[in-house]
């Protein structure tokens, strides 16, 4: 066989895919599973958005669009940034892509390469690390845990930034921890960044509308205007509008950075799907009432899961302030044994035991560069939460 590109060796396989593969094998064998691994809303895309897509198809909006998005969608995005975040962007400061994922990947590639460091706190989303590795840059990790609410401190950031740092990657609300930085906390990070004018900031705001306390969401470009001039604020319609399959992400930031991203997309992805862009315009400009309706449902699910998991000896849960994830710490289970004698030495061991013996799918912390933690997504029905959490409790109690 011809050889594969050895550059890909630096990219670690996604820990989330491992779990999906194992769960799929069990599903094919007819096992009933209680799935807490899925990182997407279980709601359907609202009717008005689906209708807008149909109109787009019927009116012939089926051709290539501008690589960085249609003028109408950019208008809707500019209005959204102004309305929700108090940020002002002109058309050349906005870029639309086929999901936030490729946009983040290219945004990193545009500012960091070989020899450069990208600073990120852990636990972090698997793909953020993968994107840094794909760009050829090095991830400089700042470890956080349940004790600090999964948030980096300004002192920690100050200790970590160095002359090789090209980029700070922020994600709030966080996948996988649900931590949400307050405006004051972001301003304090901004003060540290003031001493590092050569560092770009990438703010992944994908879960902006899934924040449980009113007016708690803040984004660094808005609270720290000096840093804002070098910040790319990334958002999308996937999580908030239940549009994961439509593949629309967008960003606003410095025109130089946006131009570089556009240049890469010109040669690789091309423009996003024309029909999805029309749907995204409706999502951003149309009625927003379901955002608060869904939020209330997510809050109920979060509280239900937390109240059930309280009965699990050896697990410790922080209350997530946003997104739809809980990241229990399972240090109390380490060194214990399953009834068949298997040793629990890491979150991966416990997650495997949960899946094989109890049919519960979760994601081990290694995928988020942290242990001993694992991730539970509560973007699923109350029935699954009740039965799945009862099984998690049973699993913890079954260990000797
Ligand atoms: N950022 C975060 C933090 C995410 O969790 C995800 C999806 N899991 C994305 C970005 C990617 O979103 P999209 O569906 O728009 O590609």
TrEMBL record:
EC number: 2.6.1.-
Domain Aminotransferase class I/classII large as annotated: residue spans: 32-392
Catalytic activity as recorded in UniProt: L-aspartate + 2-oxoglutarate = oxaloacetate + L-glutamate
Stored InterPro entries: Aminotransferase_I/II_large, AspAT/PAT-like, NHTrfase_class1_PyrdxlP-BS, PyrdxlP-dep_Trfase, PyrdxlP-dep_Trfase_major, PyrdxlP-dep_Trfase_small
Superkingdom in the source lineage: Bacteria
Principal EC category: transferase
Cofactor: pyridoxal 5'-phosphate
The entry's keywords: Aminotransferase, Pyridoxal phosphate, Transferase
One Pfam assignment: Aminotran_1_2
Coiled-coil annotated spans: none
Family annotation (PROSITE patterns): AA_TRANSFER_CLASS_1 (PS00105)
GO molecular function (one): transaminase activity
Family recorded in the similarity comment: Belongs to the class-I pyridoxal-phosphate-dependent aminotransferase family.
Protein name: Aminotransferase
């Amino acid at each position: 066989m011809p050889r594969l590109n050895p550059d890909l060796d630096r990219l670690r396989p996604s820990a989330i895919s491992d779990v999906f593969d194992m769960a799929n094998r069990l599903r094919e064998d007819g096992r009933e599973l209680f799935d807490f691994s899925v990182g997407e809303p279980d709601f359907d895309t609202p009717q008005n958005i689906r209708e807008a897509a149909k109109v787009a198809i019927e009116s012939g909006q089926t051709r290539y669009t501008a690589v960085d998005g249609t003028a109408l969608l950019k208008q809707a995005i500019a209005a959204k940034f102004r309305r929700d975040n108090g940020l002002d962007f002109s058309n050349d400061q906005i870029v639309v892509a086929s999901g936030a994922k490729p946009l983040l990947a290219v945004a990193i590639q545009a500012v960091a390469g070989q020899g450069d460091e990208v600073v990120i706190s852990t636990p972090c989303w698997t793909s953020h690390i993968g994107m840094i590795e794909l760009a050829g840059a090095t991830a400089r990790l700042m470890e956080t845990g349940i004790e600090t609410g999964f948030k980096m401190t300004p002192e920690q950031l100050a200790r970590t930034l160095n002359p090789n740092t090209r980029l700070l990657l922020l994600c709030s609300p966080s996948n996988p921890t649900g931590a949400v930085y307050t405006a004051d906390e972001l301003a304090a990070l901004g003060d540290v960044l003031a001493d590092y004018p050569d560092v770009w900031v990438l703010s992944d705001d994908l879960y902006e509308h899934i924040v449980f306390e009113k007016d708690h969401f803040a984004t660094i470009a808005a609270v720290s205007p000096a840093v804002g001039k070098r910040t790319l604020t990334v958002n999308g319609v996937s999580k908030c509008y239940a549009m994961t399959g439509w593949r629309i992400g967008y960003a606003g930031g410095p025109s130089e950075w946006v131009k570089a991203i556009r240049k890469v997309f010109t040669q690789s992805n091309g423009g996003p799907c024309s029909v999805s862009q029309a749907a995204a315009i409706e999502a951003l400009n149309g009625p927003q009432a379901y955002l608060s309706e869904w939020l209330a449902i997510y809050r109920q699910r979060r509280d239900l899961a937390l109240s059930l998991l309280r009965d699990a000896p050896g697990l410790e849960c922080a209350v997530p302030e946003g997104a739809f994830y809980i990241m229990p710490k399972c240090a109390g289970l380490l060194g214990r044994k399953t009834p068949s004698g298997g040793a629990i030495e890491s979150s991966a061991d416990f997650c495997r035991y949960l899946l094989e013996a109890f049919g519960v799918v979760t994601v081990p912390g290694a995928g988020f560069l942290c242990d001993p933690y694992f991730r539970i997504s509560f973007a699923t029905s109350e029935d699954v939460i009740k039965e799945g959490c009862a099984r998690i409790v049973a699993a913890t109690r079954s260990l000797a």
